[in-house]
């Protein structure tokens, strides 16, 4: 069983986001990146499958600052192979271009199963999974919270809105968009990660020239704007409480 | 008589036992009398599947794997009560308890609450997961302005290592502000690291994450080496313990004092400034890592007695026998886990003692304590009148 897990870093919302001078993108000077939460679950699910049924797990990601730490942490959890995609990707690419480029590389790796996070909060042109599936000619099932491999088939638990759960099979090879792993992503001791940094290597593969067609063009990026109907409460807790009391009185609820 | 070595694969117990020898005085584990004092004095020993004494027995019986199958070692708050009472002076906390947590953590067997505190420490340099950029936000509005070394780039006499909770916790920020006020009143030339400061890492170490501790220590060490200062003071006994006893092993060696020691040295200068009378009966809670571990008992009391109007009384457990607030060894990040096991909080036990002492102020000197004890006060009806204050908050009040 050969499992490929494409993952990426996304802006960490612990820092307040600001827009750069072009007005069409985030200001990256203060940006802190973190693993996309759903991708972290995809890694966990791949490791769980490896532990249960035996598998070779490859983590693949586009080069970015901090990506080595992510990859070594995945290795400490049990991933077997680490691949970093290089090329003109540092400034970010759209998911259409990335899916096309990645599909060519992943094809060569002859995967049985591709697990990726179901979405990321900075996906502007759809999530990566379904697009990868399209270019690879494989089935895709998203919003997955449980995976069992059974011969040439994969049995998945798919979450629907309203608390419905679907139990379905797909033929392998397939692409799955992971919503949640069967258990929360595990902790690995820093000493194990550091050991990986000394003993494991990250392979670099070239994404070559990317075809950016199909992606969106951002005309304007902006912070939420206060409209006429919105009243912003004070940041001071006491003042905000008074504002709320007055508001409730005005509305006749107090 | 000639003996032949029989080849044999060491069991987990044997490997683990050998690893304990590497801890300072680790060979003393062989001298355990099985007197049971450690298990008896342990504040949570009564509900551990394997309290410290039984853990040692398990090691000797080659059955330590049974200890590893339970999760009650996470009840250990690294308070050093076991190590302190042991007649053979066996390093139970530093060796056995911490090493066991390390093994559990390496096996990935840790409570999820603790996991997020460790992940946050790794990622943001503080266990709460706050933005490192906001680490010095508490200084806003303080006059004269607090020097942030990365920004102001001037040599100072004192580098104040503020610590996680005084930097970020809304209740404990008041302790940081009070210390700034006292240092300014004394005309001390001091600075802080602000966004460049990382968690001292000591509690992470004692909760089994040695690698993370080393990573944080290396980061702090690198930052220390960039600036000119004569010594470090801390507002956190855990940071004090790390800087005094653990960082030097990693080659990070600076003279360090807890703020109570620093201020006690200047008591003659400080005393005339304490003009406002505080009519109160005060009892002092010795923090584990200031008192029992590092034997700083007199300076905090000296400072309290310097405040006009204060009457100092002792709780039944005081000095080296002080009770843990429950925050050490990862307890700060295991509230839910420990409540589930014990349905009791160590902080509540301590607050009962404070009430019984007749005090109306419970004075503390560790940033874990104000929120822990204030929460306990809310749940104990007899403690309604009890106020929890850090010593430096009382000093700042007395400055007028």
Summarize the amount of helix of chain A as a percent range: 25-40%
- CATH homologous superfamily title of the largest domain in chain A: HUPs
Order of helices and strands of chain B: HHHHHHHEHEHHEHHEHEHHEHEHHEHEH
- Into which percentage range does the β-strand content of chain A fall? 25-35%
Largest sheet of chain B: 5 strands, parallel
Radius of gyration of chain B: 22 Å
Question: How do the strands and helices of this protein lay out in sequence?
Answer:
The complex is a heterodimer of chains A (254) and B (400).
Chain A: E1 2-7, E2 9-11, E3 33-35, H1 37-53, E4 56-62, H2 67-77, E5 81-86, H3 95-108, E6 113-117, H4 128-136, E7 140-150, E8 153-159, E9 165-171, E10 174-178, H5 190-199, E11 202-206, H6 237-250
Parallel strand pairs in A: 1-4, 1-6, 4-5, 5-11, 6-10, 7-10
Antiparallel strand pairs in A: 2-3, 7-8, 8-9
Chain B: H1 12-20, H2 37-41, H3 52-60, H4 64-68, H5 81-85, H6 92-106, H7 112-124, E1 147-148, H8 149-152, E2 158-161, H9 164-168, H10 173-185, E3 190-192, H11 202-206, H12 210-224, E4 231-234, H13 237-246, E5 256-258, H14 259-265, H15 267-270, E6 280-284, H16 298-305, E7 310-313, H17 335-342, H18 346-356, E8 361-364, H19 369-379, E9 387-390, H20 391-398
Helix pairs in contact in B: 10-20, 14-16, 18-19
Structure description:
The complex is a heterodimer of chains A (254) and B (400). Chain A has helices at residues 37-53, 67-77, 95-108, 128-136, 190-199, 237-250, and strands spanning 2-7, 9-11, 33-35, 56-62, 81-86, 113-117, 140-150, 153-159, 165-171, 174-178, 202-206. With 254 residues, chain A is α/β, with parallel strands linked by helices. Chain A has a nine-stranded mixed β-sheet with strand order 9-8-7-10-6-1-4-5-11, sandwiched between helices. Chain A has a two-stranded antiparallel sheet with strand order 2-3. The mean pLDDT of chain A is 93. Chain B has helices at 12-20, 37-41, 52-60, 64-68, 81-85, 92-106, 112-124, 149-152, 164-168, 173-185, 202-206, 210-224, 237-246, 259-265, 267-270, 298-305, 335-342, 346-356, 369-379, 391-398; strands at 147-148, 158-161, 190-192, 231-234, 256-258, 280-284, 310-313, 361-364, 387-390. Chain B has a five-stranded parallel β-sheet with strand order 1-3-2-4-5. Chain B has three domains: 12-106, no CATH class; 123-264, Rossmann fold, CATH 3.40.50.1860; 267-398, Rossmann fold (3-Layer(aba) Sandwich). Chain B is of the alpha/beta class and 400 residues long. Chain B is globular, with a radius of gyration of 22 Å. Chain A binds chain B through residues 14-15, 30, 34, 184, 186-194, and chain B through 102, 105-106, 108, 110, 112, 115, 118-119, 122-124, 129-131, 133, 209-212, 214-215.
């Amino acid at each position: 069983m050969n499992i490929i897990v494409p993952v990426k870093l996304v802006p960490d919302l612990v820092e307040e986001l600001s827009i750069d001078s072009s007005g069409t993108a985030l200001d990256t000077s203060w940006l802190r990146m973190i693993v996309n939460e759903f991708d972290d679950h995809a890694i966990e699910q791949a490791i769980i499958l490896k532990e249960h049924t035996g598998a070779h797990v490859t983590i693949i990601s586009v080069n970015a600052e901090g990506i080595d730490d992510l990859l070594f942490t995945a290795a400490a959890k049990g991933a077997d192979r680490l691949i970093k995609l290089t090329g003109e990707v540092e400034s970010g690419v759209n998911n259409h271009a990335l899916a096309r480029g990645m599909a060519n590389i992943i094809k060569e790796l002859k995967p049985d199963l591709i697990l990726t996070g179901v979405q990321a909060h900075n996906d502007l042109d759809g999530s990566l999974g379904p697009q990868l599936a399209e270019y690879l000619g494989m089935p895709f099932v998203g919003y997955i919270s449980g995976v069992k491999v059974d011969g040439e088939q994969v049995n998945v638990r798919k979450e629907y809105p309203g608390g419905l759960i679907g139990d379905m099979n797909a033929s392998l090879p397939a692409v799955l968009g992971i919503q949640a792993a069967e258990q929360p992503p595990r902790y690995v001791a820093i000493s194990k990660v550091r050991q990986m940094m000394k003993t494991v290597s990250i392979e670099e593969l070239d994404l070559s020239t990317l075809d950016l067609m199909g992606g969106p063009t951002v005309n304007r990026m902006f912070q939420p704007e206060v409209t006429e109907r919105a009243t912003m409460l004070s940041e001071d807790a006491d003042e905000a409480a008074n504002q709320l009391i007055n508001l409730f009185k005005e509305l006749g609820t107090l | 008589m000639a003996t032949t070595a029989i080849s044999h694969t060491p069991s987990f117990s044997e490997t683990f036992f050998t690893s304990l020898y590497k801890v300072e005085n680790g060979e003393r584990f062989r001298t355990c009398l099985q007197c049971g004092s450690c298990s008896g004095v342990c504040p949570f020993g009564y509900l551990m599947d394997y309290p410290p004494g039984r853990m040692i027995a398990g090691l000797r019986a080659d059955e330590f794997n049974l200890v590893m199958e339970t999760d009650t070692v996470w009840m250990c708050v690294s308070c050093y009560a076991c190590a302190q009472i042991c007649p053979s002076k066996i390093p139970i906390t530093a060796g056995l308890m911490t090493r066991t947590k390390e093994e559990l953590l390496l096996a990935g067997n840790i409570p999820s609450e603790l996991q997020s505190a460790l992940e946050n420490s790794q990622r943001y340099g503080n266990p709460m997961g706050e933005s490192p950029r906001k680490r010095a936000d508490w200084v806003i509005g303080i006059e004269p302005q607090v020097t942030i070394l990365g920004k102001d780039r001037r040599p100072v006499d004192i580098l104040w290592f503020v610590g996680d909770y005084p930097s970020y916790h809304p209740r404990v920020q008041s302790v940081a502000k009070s210390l700034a006020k006292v240092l300014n009143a004394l005309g001390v030339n001091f600075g802080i690291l602000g966004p460049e400061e990382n968690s001292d890492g000591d509690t992470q170490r004692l909760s089994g994450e040695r690698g993370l501790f080393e990573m944080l220590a290396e980061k702090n060490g690198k930052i220390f080496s960039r600036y000119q200062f004569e010594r470090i003071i801390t507002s956190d006994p855990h940071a004090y313990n790390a800087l005094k006893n653990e960082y030097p092993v990693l080659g990070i060696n600076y003279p360090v004092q807890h703020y109570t020691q620093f201020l006690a040295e200047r008591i003659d200068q400080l005393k005339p400034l304490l003009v406002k009378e505080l009519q109160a009966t005060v009892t002092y809670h010795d923090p584990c890592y200031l008192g029992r571990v590092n034997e700083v008992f007199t300076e905090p009391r000296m400072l309290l007695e310097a405040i006009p109007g204060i009457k100092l009384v002792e709780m039944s457990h005081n000095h080296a026998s002080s009770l843990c607030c429950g925050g050490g060894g990862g307890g700060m990040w295991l509230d839910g886990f420990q409540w589930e096991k014990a349905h009791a909080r160590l902080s509540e036990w301590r607050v009962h003692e404070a009430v019984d002492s007749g005090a109306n102020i419970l004075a503390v000197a560790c940033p874990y304590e104000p929120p822990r004890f204030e929460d306990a006060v809310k749940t104990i009806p007899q403690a309604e009148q009890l106020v929890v204050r850090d010593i430096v908050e009382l000093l700042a009040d007395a400055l007028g």
